[in-house]
Specification:
alpha/beta; Udp-n-acetylmuramoylalanyl-d-glutamate--2,6- Diaminopimelate Ligase, Chain: A, domain 1; UDP-N-acetylmuramoyl-L-alanine:D-glutamate ligase; Protein-Tyrosine Phosphatase, Chain A; six-stranded mixed beta sheet; 16 helices; about 35% helix
């Protein structure tokens, strides 16, 4: 079975074909800005109506359009009552039709994407591209899932209760990982961190009976999930101190990444990764423990892990003049991830250690306190300076104390005499922030200047 034509998709989803139904889209696309020729453009009704961009999609080379009414455009059209529902059904039906032997899911407050990359490399599996981890991106990726796969690794994100439950409905799982239950998006959960644990636990509840999920043995909320009645149908695999699977003999290799020995019931296995920081060691230990528990060979797993390279915004390192370096962790930010990345920074060679941080989001009424505590913790780790911007920059700086500078927005951070240009030459610099604050602009400026 190759990729589906419009006629084949309609046989699964219903709907009406207008024009050439034998067209076989190479992918689905939700955004004309990133649409590649040959894709089927999905016209979603959201803040902006995707139907208004259908002409542009056709001009950019769309092979077909998924729409909720026929449009006066010379392009094959798949007409359905609701394009969002059809998108999700398309991904669900495609996965069911070409289902790999093992489907893995990865979620967590920190490190989802890195762990997805590591796990996919460990098992030699297909993976959801980029950060397609929500109710739009996951089915978009699954709609053109290749056939004949041995395994697939799906990242699953959430910001509100019920999202992961809906994702596992689209993509039922055989095994999974919860990297950590932290505080990201806590403003959306009336029961605080327990609410987040329940939402992350939806991945466990959604595992097929007899499945296995891995977690850090030191995470109390993952242990809480494992003890819930709705998790009794699957096996929890704790990884860490005192457990059959764990990691030891950790060695920082600086800009080259890190090394450790994975402890297994059959002995220890040397593992080397190109991702810097002990938090990446933990991610790699989770991925490799789950893979080996499911029967993948230890040598194959270790070799796969060694080939994973950092992506932009997720641990990519850049050398700087004067012997310094920049750790690009700009994709998103939570207190847990900021501190983990700061520890990684301190293991790298270079001069003074500095953090450039955009404010965090979705923390609710606790946001000022969490920013202050994060600033205090950064100073406690030994960072030399903090350059913060955004609506909670003042709280970051208040917690950090001397050596911190606060700015209301990126323009001020960039232009002030005490801003980015004041970071000393040769420094080790961590750049991180919520997506809202587009911290990658700081990376671009620092690399250019």
């Amino acid at each position: 079975m190759s990729l589906w034509s419009l006629f084949q998709a309609a046989s699964q989803l219903g709907g009406e074909i207008v024009g050439d139904g034998s067209v076989v889209p190479t992918s689905l696309s939700l955004d004309t800005r990133t649409l590649e020729p040959g894709a089927c453009f999905v016209a979603l009704r959201a803040e902006r109506d995707g139907h208004d961009f259908a002409v542009q999609a056709a001009k950019r080379g769309a092979a077909a359009l998924l729409v909720d009414h026929q449009l006066p455009i010379d392009c094959p059209q798949f007409v359905v009552p609701d394009t969002l529902v059809a998108l999700q059904q398309w991904g669900q039906a495609r996965l069911a039709a070409v289902r790999p032997k093992t489907v893995f899911g990865v979620t967590g407050s920190v490190g989802k994407t890195s762990t997805k990359e590591l796990l996919a490399a460990a098992v030699g599996g297909w993976k959801t591209p980029g950060n397609r981890n929500n109710l739009l991106g996951l089915p978009e990726a699954l709609a053109t899932l290749p056939e004949g796969l041995g395994s697939a690794v799906l990242e699953m994100g959430m910001s509100t209760p019920g999202e992961i439950r809906r994702l596992t409905g689209i993509a039922p799982l055989d095994a999974g990982v919860i990297t950590l239950v932290g505080t990201a998006h806590i403003e959306n959960f009336s029961h605080g961190q327990q609410g987040i644990a329940e939402a992350k636990g939806e991945l466990v509840a959604g595992l097929n009976s007899g499945g296995v999920w891995a977690h850090l043995a030191s995470d109390p909320w993952c242990r809480w999930i494992a003890a819930q009645p709705w998790a009794a149908h699957v096996e929890a695999l704790p990884v860490g101190e005192g457990e059959a699977f764990g990691w030891e003999a950790v060695e920082s290799l600086g800009v080259a990444g890190g090394a450790f020995r994975l402890r297994t019931p059959s002995g220890s296995v040397p593992v080397r990764i190109q991702l810097p920081g002990e938090h990446q060691i933990r991610n790699a230990a989770l991925a490799s423990a789950l893979a080996i528990r499911l029967g993948y060979g230890a040598e194959q797993v270790a070799l796969g892990l060694s080939r994973v390279t950092p992506e932009p915004g997720r641990g990519r390192l850049h050398p700087l003049p004067g012997g310094g370096c920049l750790l690009d962790e700009t994709y998103n930010a939570s207190s847990d991830s900021i501190l983990a990345c700061a520890r990684a920074l301190l293991q790298l060679p270079g001069g003074e250690s500095a953090a450039v941080l955009g404010s965090m989001r979705e923390l609710g009424p606790d946001a000022p306190r969490i920013h202050r505590e994060t600033g205090t913790a950064l100073k406690g780790l030994g960072l030399s300076g903090l350059w913060a911007y955004g609506d909670h920059a003042g709280e970051y700086a208040e917690g950090f104390g001397p050596g911190a500078f606060a700015f209301p927005d990126f323009d001020a951070l960039r232009d002030a005499a005490s801003g980015l240009s004041a970071i000393p030459s040769g420094a080790r610099i961590l750049v991180k922030g919520s997506r809202f604050w587009r911290a990658e602009r700081a990376v671009d400026w620092l690399l250019a200047h």
